[in-house]
Amino acid sequence: MKGQLLYKFIRPDKSLADFVYSFSCLQNLSNIKEGVIIPNGKIDLLFCKTISNQLRISLMGLETKPKPMPDGDISAFFAINFNPLAVEYILQQPIANLLNTGATLPNNFWDFHLHDLDNFESFCEKAAQKITSIIPNEIDDRKQKLFDLIFATNGEMRIKELSEKIFWNERQINRYFNQQFGISLKAYCNILRFQASLPYIKEGNIFPQLDFSDQSHFIKEIKKLSGVSPKELSQNKNDRFLQFLVYNSK
């Protein structure tokens, strides 16, 4: 329908899954008045089309708190939603300085142009080819296993246990996280647990389903990362919490 917010979501090929969580796009963004962005543990590379039909490319760091959808002249964007392992091996630059913010990239980054935003599927194919060409032959096995474990457990595995399973010192793990992403491993795992709670909250289940110590702790963590209580989040007034679009698309 003309003017309606349009959302698309595509999972990458298995060969890219360590680095790319998804490709996504939002169109008719100029109609959003109260959109809220909440932390999702992903690093977004955004290819934005402005109302004046210009291309704007931005790299967004991790989010640790909710923020309003920025006012501006963006009509649509296509995005590559990276997993953290991509920071070192695909983007090849730390993003610690981009915590809760972003950076503008050259408008021909990775040889993308405005016409690449005409078709989402073609955009995904071009992005996948580019990422495939960058993947190095060797990946640190400890880091790969670390992210496999924290994603598989929604961030609920204790850091000590993670360290023992991958034979990597806890202090070194936290140094890696702070240097690369700007947050500790514990803070990152809290974001993953928050995200894993969203499907339950969306269905109206506003009691802890994951490893929260009690209801009070659950409410505190949800409010910290979304800005509202679990009950208000579940109501999603005016569809302002855009992350729920992910679950609508499945």
Structure description:
By secondary structure, this protein is an alpha+beta fold. The protein folds into two domains: 6-134; 141-248, Homeodomain-like (Arc Repressor Mutant, subunit A, Orthogonal Bundle). Helices cover 38% and strands 18% of the residues. The protein contains nine helices and eight strands. It has helices at 85-91, 120-134, 141-152, 159-166, 170-181, 185-202, 215-226, 230-235, 245-248; strands at 6-10, 20-27, 36-37, 43-50, 55-60, 67-68, 74-82, 102-105. Strands 1-2-7-4-5-8 form a six-stranded antiparallel β-sheet. Strands 3-6 form a two-stranded antiparallel ribbon. The protein is globular and about 50 Å long. The model has no long low-confidence stretch (mean pLDDT 88).
> Could you give the distance between the termini?
20 Å
Fraction of residues in helices?
A: 25-40%
Helix/strand class: alpha+beta
Helix count from the secondary structure assignment? 9
Give the total of domains.
2
What are the key terms here?
9 helices, Arc Repressor Mutant, subunit A, 250 residues, two-stranded antiparallel sheet, 6-stranded antiparallel β-sheet, alpha+beta, globular
Q: How does the SSE layout of this entry go?
A:
Layout: E1 6-10, E2 20-27, E3 36-37, E4 43-50, E5 55-60, E6 67-68, E7 74-82, H1 85-91, E8 102-105, H2 120-134, H3 141-152, H4 159-166, H5 170-181, H6 185-202, H7 215-226, H8 230-235, H9 245-248
Antiparallel strand pairs: 1-2, 2-7, 3-6, 4-5, 4-7, 5-8
